[in-house]
Prior knowledge:
Helix content of chain A is 65%, strand content 5%.
Amino acid sequence: MKTVETEKITLAFGAAGGQPTAVEIPVGAVIQRTYWHNVWRRVSRDPFTVACALVLTVVAAAALFAPWLGLPEPTLTNSANRLLPVGSPGHLLGTDELGRDMFSRLIYGGRLSLMMGILPVLVALLVGGTLGLIAGFVGGRVNMLIMRITDVFYAFPSILLAVAIAGSLGAGIGNALLAITIVFIPPLTRVTESVTTQVRAMDFVEAARASGAGTFTIIRIHVLGNVLGPIFVYATVLISVSIVISAGLSFIGLGASPPDAEWGLMLNTLREAIFLAPLNSVLPGFMIFIASMCFNLISDGLRSAMDVRL
Amino acid sequence: MVEHTMLMTAARSTAPELRPLLSVRNLRKYFPVRSDRLMGPRLLVQAVDDVSFTITAGETLGIVGESGCGKSTTARLLMHLIAPDAGEVWLGGKRLGGSGGFTLRELRRNMQMVFQDSYASLNPRLSVRDSIAFGPRAHGVPAEKARAKARELLGLVGLDPGQFSRRYPHELSGGQRQRVNLARALALDPKLEILDEAVSALDKSIEAQVLNLLMDLKRELGLTYLFISHDLNVVQYVSDHVLVMYLGKVVELGTVDDIYHRPRHPYTRALLASRPSMDPEARIDRSPLTGDPPNPINPPSGCRFRTRCAFAEAVCEKVEPALTVCSAASGHAVACHMHIDRSGHSRHG
């Protein structure tokens, strides 16, 4: 859209020296923004959200490019240098109980931990979102069937359910991912269903139906746009939960297995050294805290930025 | 008020083409509701029961009645936003469905609707232009053409396209939003517009502006209106014919002159008597109608109005009065035993 600069309003002010000062204000040159432009603008003005996004970007980029950062091998043991304190020469954040470099392991650990945080939510978002959209838009018996099945999963606390599923499938990263995905499908289905049901009852969907548009067109143009916002917000919260659950699964030996670097697993192996090197032992926990906290705060920022009425 | 009367005569003097555009026969919708008891009988709300009427091309049919009488349900049934239980809809001599009839898509192209809530009926995530262009886009019009159409329509409803086409609903006032809704409803070049309380939620001054816009558009585009409102003054101003509904039934149907100056049904008379007047001498001292309408789940036997009617007799309880033409010249019809010959009612007229 090109801006119109033909018309101008000239305002004159009496300045201090008695000379009127003219100010020209262009008319019609209003910068028109789409909804997502507005969201982006609001998010980028929110210091907390921006800070959290920066921290996460740094952590994620470091994890992604870890092999090219010239870090010591994360699985390289050195029994002579066990549990070196934070700040030791050559080992910025010390070493763990097998003499492996903590800094390197924390960076490499982000690869597994973040992946286990994000991947299950993405898959669950796809499955649960679709189910919820169908249940909410079709309604009636279909809604009944889908929602009552998801209710069954609500009978168990999510961590317990994840442990039960991962436990019955056997230890391993793949099974842990699957377990967390299954745990996240019901809540995402439910959130999508409730938002879709609300949107479907609105007059603009009626009006769209009245214009003779097909069901898929209506869902794509009128429903999806109004449903995605709240679901994205919820999914971001779930990423932080997912990081915590996957760390928990690894901690009790159902996720990553030694010698892999993973924050939950590191927390477990270092827990025996908590009195010898307390700072080293809490570092993986600190990373889990930072990552999940950042996702939580970003979710908050997104929620307020997406509120159209503000 | 003077201006209203002048415009009213002006609107009516335009000669209508005398062919039925929309013809509705025996439209019925009962909504099932959950029973209080677990294994209780299935209850039905008789929202719209056996409603028939025709609208001539170029005229405006007003539908009036208390809230809950089935006005809006009738509108939604016509658009098939709710599936009717029974009844036929004929548009321009062709029936909906069946062989040789037209499809739902064609019906919706020819018939469009404006809703009461101007905010809820616009998608908050779509710009005004995209909202208006949605209908044509859904019917296969290329994006550029649909947008050009949207701009043209914005101009038609009195909104500067350059200023408004990229705005979002929350950036508009109520009157502006309703103009956008009107533009949206015109985007498919429909023949019939259903205006379901389209001006009821607006301020009085804005309401008058939008009403005048409606009258102008009708003249310019050769539209036909089905105008639903609870506001008797507005209906009198815009309509050629008026249909009075009570508890899902048509109780009286006639020209605006017949209904407002020679009302026959006791309910119509009570409705008209309940109108606030500008004349301090014509103050209403007694309430012309008391109580609420009965529950539509279990409507009274015979005449549905008898529980609130001052003239109810035994026959009103036993026999349901059929909608009967009482003036062949103007087509004035009423469903009341007092106006049916040999109905058994002691009064007549």
